[in-house]
């Protein structure tokens, strides 16, 4: 997949509409310093752009595989365009995520938005709660992010509590000691 080309198209579409976005998933982890093989582009956007974004992706030749209030998945026949997974947020969550995000250099030198590590962790904890099969990989990512300078562990612990997986945080704390 040509991440820079796909991300450039999507970011231009969103920016023209005044909509925010941030890179998450494997590309986001690579930006934070833990590169790994990834075959899709994961982004988070405000929920109010969902219909327009899904339509845009379909007009770009993507097949929509799944759509719900909080997620959509899109696949293109052209391997250079690959798969795009989108997380949709609204309200206070949206304001907090995007209000505290920052611009960094992403794939191909493209300027992209990235979430604070704590918010990235919150999305991963939420994903674990909804799909426990993700636990091992996401906990490894969370462990890495927890080692970054300045992480607010109290805030992170609150996310584990909010999503009902406090025992995972306790295990993580023991590992990080």
How would you explain this protein's 3D organization?
The chain is an alpha+beta fold and about 180 residues long. The protein contains 8 helices and 7 strands, in the order αβαβαβββαββαααα. The chain has 2 domains: about 1-115, Beta Polymerase, domain 2 (2-Layer Sandwich), CATH 3.30.460; about 115-175. It is about 50% helix and about 20% strand. The strands form 2 sheets. A 5-stranded mixed beta sheet has the order 1-2-5-4-3. A two-stranded antiparallel ribbon has the order 6-7. Strand 3 (about 60-65) and strand 4 form a beta hairpin.
Q: Which terms summarize this structure?
A:
single chain; 177 residues; alpha+beta; Beta Polymerase, domain 2; 5-stranded mixed sheet; 8 helices; 21% strand; globular
CATH architecture descriptor of the largest domain: 2-Layer Sandwich
H/E element string? Answer: HEHEHEEEHEEHHHH
Portion of residues in helices? Answer: 40-55%
Strand order of the main beta sheet, please? 1-2-5-4-3
pLDDT < 50 stretches: none
C-alpha Rg (nearest Å)? 16 Å
| Tertiary shape | globular
**Number of H- or I-type helical stretches:** 8
CATH class of the largest domain: Alpha Beta
On the 0 to 100 scale, the average pLDDT is 94
Task: Please give the domain count.
Answer: 2
